[in-house]
Design goal:
The protein is of the alpha+beta class. It is 22% helix and 41% strand.
């Protein structure tokens, strides 16, 4: 068999490619091709990279500004040195992540001629400026059983484009609303709203650490309640469960169609987290005796008599209508003990400054206390603690 170009004789037909010997074929056809310029799409907000398979997570970022100056302790200087070393490590990791992204973008654009195979690739990446890289490629190839080498080069330029996560953040996109409310007969107090906000902030930080897509978009304070706008359905459901668990609240959820995108329905879920009318820490009258609420849900409440000794009681939803709210922890005031005897104690009314006699329950022990916590209900004092 002969090469139609140079007339070289070959041993078998498998050594010819399109009638040409390997040498003549390579003069006309490079085995490996790469574009002169390769675009690498990078999110300017978070650093995520776009590849054929979708967006890749951003690399770790270095920490915040580090303290400087004289007068720091040895421990502070040691901690600062450790932080600097960690920042240096982060910088190295970020540079390596960028190098891998650049070489990955180049590999995705490579075109290998049919019949050839790649044995190895070596990249030399040189950053020319903030958004441009020169990439040299040393390729070890094989064709027709012959090992071959080819050198190529290309330029990679960074092209900014907001990733879907950042686009949603900037557009205040949300898929769920968590509505935190008090009971219909008892609005949420300011302390309840502050506690719910703090709990939501902590849970939001935990969710965001687990997934870039999960975060609280905004918090809207309404009269007697809070609305949390949450980026994803799953994060919204999780936040609702956390609030319900903390406050013994009931959850009711509704889902509506918010629109369509790329042929799929966009759903939005609203979770109503409603606190019970009786809450942990409340003081209530049950069968005429003062009790403290230890736990409460929309279905039942656990009560303990105060003060003194007695068995705890579980009150169902149907029996809760018989409970009378006396006060909350912040309503308890201290009253000075004037004297005591078995079965009763004499106190100084903190409002009228008159002495009053109160019956003490079985098992109550004063134990040398100079004051007692009391609640006022319908004009009379009751021992709360």
């Amino acid at each position: 068999m002969f090469c139609v170009e140079c007339g070289r004789e070959v041993d078998d037909e498998g050594s010819l490619v399109g009638g040409l010997c390997l040498g003549c074929f390579l003069e006309r056809n490079p085995l490996l091709k790469v574009p002169e310029v390769v675009d690498l799409v990078r999110c300017p907000h978070c650093g995520a990279m776009k590849a054929k398979g979708g967006w890749r997570e951003p690399s770790g970022q270095a920490g915040g500004p580090k303290g400087r100056g004289k007068g720091r302790s040895r421990r502070a200087r040691r901690d600062a040195a450790a932080e600097t070393a960690a920042a240096d490590d982060d910088g190295v990791a970020e540079a390596e992540a960028m190098r891998l992204a650049v070489t990955g973008a180049v590999e995705e654009t490579m075109e290998l001629i049919e019949g050839a195979s790649i044995r190895s690739l070596a990249f030399n990446v040189v950053q020319e400026d903030r958004r441009s890289f020169l990439v040299g490629i040393n390729a070890e190839l094989e064709m027709c059983g012959e090992p071959l080498a080819q050198d190529l080069d290309t330029h990679v330029r960074l092209r900014p484009e907001a990733c879907p996560v950042c686009s949603r953040r900037m557009g205040s996109y949300y898929e769920a609303i968590v509505q935190f409310r008090g009971a219909r007969t008892r609005p949420a107090a300011e302390a309840d709203l502050a506690a719910a906000r703090g709990l939501a902030e902590g849970e939001g930080a935990r969710l965001e650490a687990a997934s870039r897509e999960a975060h609280i978009v905004k918090v809207q304070e309404l009269r007697g309640g809070l609305d949390f706008y949450v980026s994803t359905q799953s994060a919204g459901a999780q936040l609702a469960r956390v609030l319900a668990s903390r406050f013994g609240a009931a959850i009711s959820s509704t889902t509506t169609l918010a629109g369509r995108k790329e042929g799929r329905d966009l759903l939005r879920t609203t979770h109503l987290v409603r606190m019970p009318d009786i809450r942990p820490g409340d003081y209530v009258l049950y069968d005429g005796e003062l009790h403290r609420v230890l736990s409460s849900t929309d279905k039942e409440a656990l009560l303990a008599p105060v003060p003194g000794e007695g068995r705890r009681r579980t009150v169902s939803r149907s029996d809760r209508e018989g409970l009378v709210l006396v006060g909350v922890e912040s309503d308890v005031v201290e009253a000075v003990v004037v004297s005591s005897s078995p079965g009763e104690v004499q106190l100084l009314d903190p409002k009228t400054m008159r002495t009053v006699d109160l019956r003490t329950p079985p098992g109550f022990r004063l134990g040398g206390r100079e004051t007692l916590g009391v609640l006022r209900h319908e004009g009379r004092l009751m021992i709360a603690r």
